[in-house]
Amino acid sequence: MFCKRAGVSELSPHACRHSHALHLLEAGADIKYISERLGHKSVETTYDTYTHITKKIERNALDLLIIIL
Predict the structure, then answer these.
(1) Residue 42 pLDDT grade (very low, low, confident, very high; cuts 50, 70, 90)
(2) How far is Cα 26 from Cα 36, in angstroms, rounded to an integer?
(3) How far is 52 from 4, CA to CA, in rounded Å?
(4) Are 32 and 44 in contact (CB under 8 A)?
(5) Is residue 17 within 8 Å of 38, Cβ to Cβ?
(6) Percent of the chain predicted with pLDDT > 90
(7) Predicted model pTM
(8) Cα 45 to Cα 8: distance, rounded to the nearest angstrom
(9) Cα 8 to Cα 29: distance, rounded to the nearest angstrom
(10) Contact 22, 50 (CB under 8 A)
(11) Half-sphere exposure (Cβ direction) of 4: Cα atoms closer than 13 Å
């Protein structure tokens, strides 16, 4: 109902969860924090599920490399 009023597509709870994790990763949040927030038993679950490379994550990593060099 709220999505219709706002004129945006409805998202499933899974899509919202996935987006939430990706936004945290892109913002630089620690993977351990994200894992605990999502209730995963291990960081590996979070890492394997949510860390496919986005352009922003790739750009942030390259920026860090430039700073280091």
Answers:
(1) very high
(2) 17
(3) 30
(4) no
(5) yes
(6) 32
(7) 0.69
(8) 30
(9) 27
(10) yes
(11) 1
